[in-house]
Write a structure and sequence with these properties.
Elements: H1 2-15, E1 23-31, E2 35-44, E3 49-51, E4 56-65, E5 72-78, E6 84-89, E7 93-94, E8 102-106, E9 112-116, E10 122-132
Parallel strand pairs: 7-8
Antiparallel strand pairs: 1-2, 2-10, 3-9, 4-5, 4-10, 5-6, 8-9
């Protein structure tokens, strides 16, 4: 079951996304009316950020880098209060707003924020499966 979930989360990354078709598609319906997916693919400047959907419980995958080689990656979870937990992760990731990292953290408003504090523009890809409250 864990391998199937991992494959489901990573499939879009394994199939590849075109680097010239930036997309941000919140609330694409996945299963029935309970599970949705938020996707994000765009360049994020240093100190730039974006928010995940509010008041959701979810699980996501993030990849980031400065070229087509996206060397920063993690599996993460977010609870309905915005608290974040990093699972499998690579260097330069933090679940706090911390300089020198790509940060996934509780923004204090019932949602999580993803913020680039690496020091250079990052190409960021996110797939976040969540249950709406």
């Amino acid at each position: 079951m864990k391998k199937l979930l991992f494959l489901l989360l990573c499939l879009p990354f394994l199939l590849g996304w075109s680097s010239d078709t930036g997309w941000d598609n919140p609330n694409t319906q996945v299963v029935g009316t309970e599970l949705s997916v938020y996707t994000y693919y765009n360049n994020v400047t240093d100190d730039g950020s974006f928010n995940l959907p509010t008041s959701t419980d979810g699980l996501g995958v993030i990849k980031s880098g400065t070229t087509d080689l996206l060397s920063i990656s993690a599996i993460f979870s977010v609870d309905k209060n915005g608290n974040t937990l990093l699972g499998t992760t690579s260097d330069s990731l933090s679940n706090h707003d911390e300089d020198g990292n790509l940060c996934i953290f509780d923004a204090g408003e019932g949602y999580a924020t993803i913020k680039n504090r690496i020091g250079t523009t990052q190409n960021v890809k996110v797939i976040y499966y969540f249950q709406k409250e």
